[in-house]
Amino acid sequence: MQAVNADGQVMTVQEVLDWLQRTHGWTVTMLLHGDTVLYDREENEEKRAQQQSQRLSEYLEDAGMPRQQDLELLYVCEGEDAEAEDSRPPLLCSLP
Boundaries of each Ubiquitin-activating enzyme E1 C-terminal domain copy (predicted)? Predict the structure, then answer.
């Protein structure tokens, strides 16, 4: 997917979650890039709001990762356990 919103900006985590819900009908409970947790529904409300509002590129910068054009995101959907992420193909995102 092109991780760019209608304004031409890198998508926020919430926009990615919304895209997964709209496109595949999945309610994502955890979203990861490697070992970096981008979203965890189990976090408190304040932390979740912070996670959801951050742009994908900001997470990489905050984690000290080099700028990347392509991201491979892993996800866990409602009703699955964390080990289920290995049975599903990753979500490949292209950043501008």
Answer: 10-83
